[in-house]
Amino acid sequence: MKWLLVLIIIVCNTTGDLLNAFGMRQHGHVRDFHPSAVRRLLYSLVRNRYVIGGLVAMTVAFFALLSLLSIAELSFSIPATAGSYLFETVLAKLLLKEDVHWQRWLGACLVAGGVALLSLP
Amino acid sequence: MQHTTSSFFVRGLTLAVIAFNVSGNYFLDVGMRSVGQILSLSPLDYLKVFANASILLGVTLQAFWLISQLSLLSWADLTYVLPVTSVSYILATILGAVFLKEHVSGAHWGGVSLIVLGVMIVGRTRPRTAPGDHDEAP
């Protein structure tokens, strides 16, 4: 059960981030943060199927993490989240066609390692 | 000029994402400590925690975090946003140590150092490399 929840968290986090990134790339730059502009942005986002899909996936990941935390230690649960950094880097290169050169690979590995260390008891 | 404006927005939004994430998590943590453990299958028990001012503030800040994170993704690659905004892990560790008196071990400070290094390396790359970039939202 524990590993099934880890798998759900990684898959949903990754799917959510990829869909949000793709949806926001389609949306275009967000420059204005006045209340009326934020209202227009929210209205536009609820009609963006990629962003909606991303938010649904992130919600599933959030509740799966809550369930995982109820049956496993924090020191087990958080490294699972750190693992998704590397997974997302691979998929961003393949699906979003991002130029992931060696600095980004090194950065992602260092951050994933750092988050794993932070989760130690 | 265009590059300077983009750079200004990306840095500003990155700071906003980090600030909203850290402050939101901090207030949720403070709120949950005062509410206590919740082990229930009833959604009502979870909704009751919204009566707590710290939790309400934390949730509001998390909503601002989501808007700023999505806005940042409109300017920068996912492989840039994820490592750079992980600075929030460092600030959360420092806030926990200073204000919530949590124990921070040597391994934790090692983790903080690795994240700082990773963020410095990724922060030096160009935020947007992916094709199909739009200049302005409709």
Quick summary of this structure?
The complex is a heterodimer of chains A (121) and B (138). Chain A contains five helices and no strands. With 121 residues, chain A is mainly alpha-helical.
Task: List the defining traits of the structure above.
heterodimer; A: about 120 residues; mainly alpha; 5 helices; about 80% helix; globular; B: about 140 residues; 6 helices
Please tell me about this protein's structure.
The complex is a heterodimer of chains A (121) and B (138). With 121 residues, chain A is an all-alpha fold. Chain A has 5 helices and no strands. The relative contact order of chain A is 0.16. The mean pLDDT of chain A is 83. Chain B is mostly helical. Chain B has one domain. Chain B starts with a helix and ends in a 15-residue tail after the last helix. The model of chain B has no long low-confidence stretch (mean pLDDT 79). The chains are: A mainly alpha (121), B mainly alpha (138). Chains A and B meet through α1, α2, α4 and α5 of A and α3, α4 and α6 of B.
